[in-house]
Specification:
The chain is α/β, with parallel strands linked by helices. It contains 20 helices and 25 strands. It has an 8-stranded mixed β-sheet, with helices on both faces. Strands 2-3-1-4 form a 4-stranded antiparallel β-sheet. Strand 23 and strand 24 (about 425-435) form a beta hairpin. It comes from Nonomuraea corallina.
C-alpha cells in the first residue's frame, strides 16, 4: 500500500506511518463512554466536515464508526482506496486516517462510517499563591490530599524532579504520529503505559537545547509538588502531546500539540483506572467561545467523556484561556467542566485571563514558581498555572470527604470562594476566587472584590492611521535591510520587521507580569533562582482596525511598528480562533502571513486576505467575530464559487 501511495501522492512516508498502517495502533482501552453517533446523515457528503482538504492535499481526520467491531472492514476499505490508516484503537468507535478530499468522500460512502472530521490539535494554554488561597492553613490542619490522585494530561513530567517528591504513581502516553508528527512516547509508538511512559526528558522533547515538554512538570508541581496545593496527593502523568515538525503550522521549527484523538484516548484511559482520582487537569485549549460549547462538533464528543468522569467522582478542570476574552476556550467552555481563569497577587483578574459567566473559578496564575525538567525551578504565568491550583484543591476536599459526590465538592469550592464582581457582556458577573481554607473549614466567603473595568494589558504600539497610506507599499521580493533568515525556506519571503527588539512595556500589548514573590519551600536541592516569567501571549486592546495592506506593512521587515513577538503572538491566537488558519491556509509564520495578505488576485485569495486581516484585528483587540465566522463557512464550502467568495470578502472588509 505504501508504494502505491508514493506513486499517487508523490510524497515519502516515514517508516512509523507504514508500521501504523499494518499493525494495531494501540492496546485495548476501557470501553468508550461516548455514545456512538447515530447514522443520521443522509449522504456521504453530509458525513464530512466542511473544509476537509478543500484546497487539495491530504488531511489527518477522525473517522467515526457505528461500533468498534467495524475497524477491520473499514480499515481494509481505506487501505484499498489508498487512505493511510494512522490509528486503530480497537475498543473505540473511531479511527484516524490521512487522505485527500476525494479519498475521504469515498470512505464516507461506507454505511459503517457515521462521520469524518479533522483531528484537531490544541496547544498548551500558557508566588504567593499558596498563602493567598489559604492552602497553607489547610496543610497546617493536616489536609494535604493523601490517598487521592490528580491526573495531569499534559506534556509529561520529569519523573526524578525533587519537587515532585516521588509522587508519580502511574504513567501513560497517547501521542499522535504522521509524516510530520512524532510520538513523544519513549517507545516511539502512538501509545505506551507503565513506568517511564510520560517521561518529559526524552530526546524528542528537546529542540536546540530547549525542552519543549516543560509545561507538564510545571503544572504537576503546582497541583501536587512539595510546595504545591496538595503535597500529599499522587500524580498520574499522561503525555497527550506530539512533536510537530512543521514550521508552517508551528511558526517555528517544531512545537508540541495535543490532537483530539490523543485526548479522547487519554480521558478514557483515566476513566478505566482503579486508583482514587479527584481531578483531571487540562491546561490546554483551543477556540475561544462566548457561550457553552456542549452542542458544538467537538463538544458532542468531549462532554460525554467529562460527564462519565464526573459520574465516577472525577472532576475535569480546564484552563479558561489567555485571550483576554469574555468567554472560555475549548474545552473549558463545556458546561460540566470546571473552567478556571487567573488572578494576580493583588486579588485582581490577571490582565491576560479570559473571564465572564462561563468561568467557575479564578485561581492564582501570575508569576507562579514551580518545577521544570532537569531539577530546575522557574516562573510561568497563565491560566495553565491557575488550573492545577483548583485540581489540587479538589484533591484536598476529596481526601477530607471521600464519600461526598464530586459535584457537591465542586459546588462547595465555588460557594466558599471569594467573589470577584465585574462587568462582562454589559452585565454584572460574580466569579469566585479559590479559597482552600474556607472550603476545608466550611467558613463563609471573604468579602467581595470589585474589579475595575478591564484595562489594556499594555497600551500597545501606536496604530497606523487608516487614512494615512504610510510608507511605500513594500515589494514582496525585497527582503529589506536585514539579511534573509537562513532558516526561512523561501529566500524571497519577507521577514519580520527588523531585528527582534527587547520587550518594551510601552510598545508591546502583551502583559507584563507582576513582580515575582518567591514561596519558600524546603527541598533536597538548591535550584537556580527562577527567571522572571515571560509575558503571556494574549490579545491586545488597541481595538483599532487595520486593513490587509496595513497588516502586511506591519509584518514586512522594516515597515511596521509592532514587535516580532507581538505579531507572532497574534498569529498564534488566530490559529486558535480560526478554522481556516492554519488548518486550510498556512499562516503561522510571518512570511506566510505576508503572502496571504498580499495574494488577492483570485477570489479565494481575496477572501483569505480579508479573513486574515479580520482575525488579526480581533487579536489586536477589536470585538465581534460573527462576520468572520460566516465568511469562513463560505470559504470552507466546496460549493462556493468566485461570486460567493468575493461577496464574503466584501462583507468582511465592510465590517471594519
Amino acid at each position: 500500500m505504501s508504494l502505491r501511495r508514493k506513486l499517487v501522492r508523490l510524497r515519502p512516508l516515514i517508516a512509523t506511518a507504514i508500521m501504523l498502517a499494518l499493525l494495531p495502533a494501540a492496546p485495548a482501552f476501557a470501553d468508550d463512554p461516548t455514545p456512538t453517533p447515530s447514522p443520521s446523515a443522509t449522504s456521504a457528503e453530509e458525513k464530512i466536515e466542511e473544509g476537509l482538504a478543500v484546497d487539495g492535499g491530504t488531511v489527518r481526520a477522525i473517522v467515526e464508526l457505528t461500533d468498534p467491531g467495524q475497524h477491520a472492514p473499514v480499515a481494509g476499505k481505506a487501505a484499498a482506496d489508498s487512505v493511510e490508516v494512522l490509528l486503530q484503537p480497537q475498543s473505540q468507535p473511531f479511527m484516524v486516517v490521512e487522505g485527500t478530499a476525494e479519498e475521504l468522500a469515498a470512505l464516507a460512502e461506507d454505511p459503517r462510517v457515521t462521520s469524518i472530521h479533522r483531528d484537531r490539535a490544541y496547544p498548551p494554554a500558557l508566588a504567593s499563591s499558596i498563602k493567598q488561597i489559604g492552602a497553607d492553613q489547610a496543610h497546617a490542619a493536616g489536609h494535604i490530599g493523601a490517598g487521592q490522585n490528580i491526573a495531569i494530561l499534559d506534556t509529561g513530567v520529569d519523573l526524578d524532579h525533587p519537587f515532585l517528591g516521588g509522587r508519580v504513581v502511574a504513567e501513560a502516553c497517547f501521542s499522535a504520529v504522521d509524516a510530520n508528527t512524532e510520538s513523544l512516547c519513549p517507545n516511539g509508538q502512538p501509545s505506551q503505559t507503565g513506568p517511564g511512559a510520560a517521561d518529559a526528558t526524552t530526546a524528542k522533547c528537546l529542540l536546540d537545547g530547549v525542552n519543549l515538554c516543560d509545561h507538564g512538570t510545571h503544572v504537576a508541581g503546582v497541583a501536587a509538588g512539595t510546595g504545591g496545593v496538595a503535597p500529599g496527593a499522587g500524580i498520574i502523568a499522561v503525555q497527550v502531546f506530539s512533536r510537530v515538525n512543521d514550521e508552517d503550522l508551528c511558526g517555528a521549527a517544531a512545537c508540541v500539540l495535543a490532537y483530539e484523538s490523543s485526548l479522547r484516548l487519554a480521558l478514557d484511559h483515566v476513566a478505566s483506572l482503579a486508583e482514587p482520582i479527584a481531578a483531571v487537569n487540562l491546561s490546554l485549549g483551543g477556540m475561544p467561545n462566548q457561550t457553552t460549547c456542549d452542542d458544538s462538533e467537538e463538544g458532542r464528543i468531549f462532554k460525554p467523556k467529562i460527564d462519565a468522569l464526573l459520574a465516577k467522582n472525577i472532576a475535569t478542570v480546564v484552563a479558561a484561556g489567555n485571550e483576554y476574552f469574555e468567554g472560555a476556550s475549548f474545552p473549558a467552555c463545556i458546561s460540566s467542566a470546571v473552567s478556571v481563569g487567573a488572578n494576580d497577587d493583588g486579588d485582581a483578574i490577571a490582565d491576560f485571563s479570559n473571564r465572564g459567566p462561563l468561568l467557575d473559578l479564578f485561581a492564582p496564575g501570575v508569576d507562579i514558581e514551580s518545577s521544570v525538567p532537569d531539577n530546575q525551578m522557574t516562573v510561568y504565568s497563565g491560566t495553565s498555572m491557575a488550573t492545577p491550583h483548583v485540581a489540587g484543591a479538589l484533591a484536598l476536599l476529596k481526601a477530607q470527604s471521600p464519600q461526598t459526590p464530586m459535584p457537591e465538592l465542586i459546588a462547595k469550592l465555588v460557594a466558599t470562594g471569594r467573589p470577584y464582581v465585574y462587568q462582562a457582556g454589559g452585565a454584572e458577573v460574580r466569579t469566585p476566587r479559590l479559597d482552600v481554607a474556607a472550603a476545608v473549614t466550611g467558613s463563609a466567603p471573604q468579602p467581595d472584590v470589585s474589579q475595575s473595568p478591564p484595562a489594556a494589558p499594555n497600551p500597545g504600539p501606536t496604530d497606523p492611521d487608516p487614512d494615512d497610506p504610510g510608507p511605500t507599499d513594500p515589494d514582496p521580493a525585497d527582503p529589506g535591510p536585514t539579511d534573509p533568515d537562513p532558516a526561512d525556506p523561501d529566500p524571497d519571503d519577507p521577514q519580520p520587521s527588523g531585528p527582534t527588539p527587547q520587550p518594551d512595556p510601552s510598545q508591546d500589548p502583551t502583559p507584563v507580569p507582576l513582580p515575582t514573590v518567591t514561596v519558600t519551600v524546603t527541598i533536597t536541592v538548591t535550584p537556580t533562582p527562577p527567571a522572571k516569567a515571560a509575558p503571556v501571549c494574549t490579545r491586545g486592546t488597541a481595538g483599532k482596525r487595520l486593513t490587509a495592506k496595513q497588516w502586511a506593512k506591519e509584518i514586512h521587515r522594516g515597515s511596521g511598528t509592532m514587535s516580532d513577538e507581538t505579531l507572532g503572538c497574534y498569529l498564534k491566537l488566530v490559529g486558535k480562533a480560526s478554522k481556516v488558519f492554519p488548518e486550510v491556509t498556512k499562516a503561522s509564520s510571518l512570511g506566510r502571513a505576508y503572502r496571504v495578505l498580499k495574494s488577492t488576485k483570485t477570489a479565494k485569495g481575496k477572501l483569505d486576505s480579508a479573513l486574515l486581516a479580520g482575525w488579526l484585528n480581533w487579536a489586536h483587540g477589536s470585538n465581534g467575530t460573527k462576520t468572520l465566522g460566516s465568511a469562513e463557512k463560505v470559504r470552507l464550502s466546496k460549493k462556493s464559487k468566485g461570486p460567493a467568495l468575493r461577496k464574503a470578502a466584501a462583507k468582511v472588509i465592510k465590517s471594519r
